Amino acid sequence: MEKEKLILKNVSKIFPKFDGEGITEVLHDINLTVEEGEFICIVGPSGCGKSTLLRLISGLIPTTTGTLSLKEEKIEGTNVNRGMVFQKHTLFPWLTLRENVEFSFKMAGNKNKKESKEMVDKFIKMIGMQDFQNFYPHQLSGGMAQRVALIRTMITKPKVFLLDEPLGALDAFTRMNIQHELIQMCKANKNMMFILVTHDVDEAIYLGTRVIVMAPRPGVIKEDIKIDMDYPRNRNSDKFIEYRKHILDVLNFTT
To answer: pLDDT tens digit string along 27-68?
Structure first.
């Protein structure tokens, strides 16, 4: 059976300048196809439109030109089929850890209380936070809150899982643990598409089945690199270092 696809065709995005004088083209003529089961990582310098690209895919903002489609249906507005996790966890501060996860599940339209409880239990256990279910966001560390944000989106089973630098503010140890959890999520959900924006080249190589390298002014895709390595990946292997060198060379060329 043919895999379902997310297709971006000739996508551009223009914003008016803050002073009202003129416009800024943030993205120019983006063409990209993502298939279910893929983990796409997008890297590039600040201002190349990485986050804007995720917002277009999520439906938070419209394109200026070009089209986006998922499963051959045009993307217009937000939808539970496209879930997004931001750099800050955005948990509801008045809800406990468990209530935050339950809220997302209910918003996806699930009304079966037994199934809801089982799924929430499963996902909380998956991130090892059973003992913190009744904690409020302010009682959690940054890494703990971000793990909750990941499963809160993941539990709705979006077709496209969008991640806008969700690990950027975490310490190195927590970041590596969540990277491992993301790989396990991807392995367990072969029908999903993962798209991660990151400034960390090693993170992109460690997680991605493909790495998209972008250039700025305006943002364009400079290179689409297939990462031919099995999981788990050794960051010190010759192949990993070779990918790192190549991507850094491309980034230096584009800046």
So the answer is: 999 999 999 999 999 999 998 999 999 999 999 999 999 999
Yes or no: say if 84 and 153 are a contact pair by the CB < 8 Å rule: yes
CB 26 within 8 A of CB 218: yes
**pLDDT digit string (tens) for 3-35?**
899 999 999 999 988 776 788 999 999 999 999
Token duo for residue 209 = 């089945």
Question: Which residues are registered as beta bridge partners of 83?
Answer: 161
Nearest to 209 by CA among 3, 20, 2: 3
Cis ω before 218 (30° cut-off from 0):
yes
Q: Are strands 65-70 and 73-74 parallel, antiparallel or unpaired?
A: antiparallel
Burial class (CB in 10 A: 0-12, 13-18, 19+), 26: buried
Paired strand residues for 69 = 7, 74
| Confidence tier at 174 by pLDDT (50, 70, 90) | confident
Share of the chain above pLDDT 90, in %: 63
Residues in the chain: 255
> Cβ–Cβ contacts within 10 Å for residue 198, how many?
23
Cβ burial of 221 (10 Å; 0-12, 13-18, 19+) is: buried
What pLDDT digit, counting tens, does each position of 100-152 carry? Answer: 999 887 776 666 778 788 889 988 988 889 999 999 999 999 888 988 998 89
Q: Are 193 and 38 in contact (CB under 8 A)?
A: yes
- Contacts for 77 with CB less than 8 Å, ≥ 6 apart: 59
Tokens representing 147 are 């793990």
How far from 93 is each of 136, 149, 172, 237, 244, CA to CA, in Å?
Answer: 6, 12, 25, 42, 39
